Amino acid sequence: MKRRQFLSRTIGASALSLYRIPVIQAGSNSSSISDKIRQWKGNPIKIGDRKQLFIDKKFIAASHGVELITNPPLSTRQIEMPLLNGMASSGGYSTVLDVEGEYWFYYHARPEHSSQKGHQAYMLCLSKSEDGIHWRPAEVNRFKVDGSQRNNIVAPGAIGTVFIDPKKTLDSRYWFLGTLGEREEPPIWEAAKDTYYRRYYKEGHAYHEGGIYLLHSTDGMAWNRLPDVALPLWCDTQNQCLYDQRIDKYVAYLRGNNPAGMKKRRNVRRIEVDRLDKAPWPYDENPNRKRGPNGLFGNLIDELPEVMGANGLDPDATDIYTPCVNPYPWADDAYFAFPAVYRHYDGQNSYGRDLRGKYSNHGPVEVQLAVSRNGIEFTRFRRPYLASGLLDEDKGGGDVYMGVGMIKRGNFVYHYFHEDTFPHGPTTYPYRESFSSKGMEVAIHRLDGFVSIDAGPSGGELVTPPIQFEGNRLNLNIDCGAMGEAWVEIQDAHARPISGYSFNESVSVDRNGIAQEVWWQKGPDVSELAGQPIRLHVKMRSAKLFAFQFIKS
């Protein structure tokens, strides 16, 4: 053979190999994976034409060379919330709502000259936006603060979450769940009278006493309180409630505590109820616990079941709170939570290196991602979803808190968070004055892109359990970049390739798209397989697969 012919054939073979379905390493191939699942018994998962996310192993019956990965936001950007008439700063504990295409943002600000300390000084405020970046204060003008009534305060002293009630209970579209009170001076708001969220002292010891309250509103600005306390328990920070369409109930996620003496203290508790206007809500009252002077209890400990808390994979002194749970309406059976994960320094000694161990209830906070199919059982990924900044950048490395709510715009999801350059701890710490708040920021994320099933350059594959679909086209939300590709084979329930839809007949998907249509040599039509139990066998390299969906085109 002439040298030129040899080189030509060698180069041609190498070039062709780049476009073939990749060979799976470590002895794995289509048959070896299929052998594990060929003997199938049971019923297929009926998915209809609804989008399905790869957030866990529900749609992975077998795999090789792939891994579930969490993905950070595509970008973050600082936003400026309006501060009016002496309002000093905005804080965490925020909520964003999509109201007829307009962004509504509920957040907390503190009067600059308030005599109050801590949470009790927070004023729940409302601003609005058309683009999620530029904001204007809502024209509320109801409460006189620091000598002026021109402000966007909707609920003085309220700490919690605003949510939309699709059933409009009591003719009110907007509802709020959270704490009221904790004031040592008369409240400026009539609705907050006779509400309690405070410390009291008895025989030289400090105790907590508090309640969870419900507010309702027809316009989101003027609020009324239900007369009865929803739960007579002291729950700190941002508690939340939402309507869960999947179960047609209202679900609250509340700040819980482990018994005194445990290193892992804060956790998340859950309750579901049929109605908002029937209080108090049911809970398991501990007969050995004593009520405070106003008839309320201290910390929520074991009165409601725990759904999120630290375990053996976390450091000893780890707390979980402000879970920020969001049912994900743009896909089937998916919940995303963004808990604040707090590692406190109590009991440490840095021997003068830094402030670790010098103060109580002190330490860094990051936001992690937790996923669920039912809003009860959560899988929490230990890598940070939102990490604190670098220590040498404006004294970063403090704490980060996600807000509640997501808004979809086109191919992107907007949600909001608050970052401080100082770690968690009471405002009375002298050193805290030398730090600053970075304020509110927006995180912009790819639609469905919080978790993906990833394959590297060596390639990987997965096979789904048997599914039953409706529609005539298959779409993938997938990012192959410039170097990656993916191929799809449709198999019967026993993992045997179906003629016309095998890998040998598959046309690759490449580049980056939210809804990329899958083709075979005969085209994209899969209507003849609708209603049958089938499996998807996906091979890919250098790719991130987020979701799949059968559609009716």
Description:
This protein has 553 residues and is mainly beta. It has 2 domains: 145 residues, Sandwich (Jelly Rolls); 372 residues, Glycosyl hydrolase domain, family 43 (Tachylectin-2, Chain A, 5 Propeller), CATH 2.115.10.20. The chain is 4% helix and 40% strand. The protein contains 2 helices and 41 strands. The strands form 10 sheets. Strands 2, 4, 31, 34, 38 and 41 form a 6-stranded antiparallel beta sheet that branches. Strands 21, 22, 23, 24, 25 and 26 form a 6-stranded antiparallel beta sheet that branches. A 5-stranded antiparallel beta sheet has the order 3-32-40-35-37, with helices on one face. It is globular and about 80 Å long. 44% of the residues are buried. The N terminus is likely disordered.
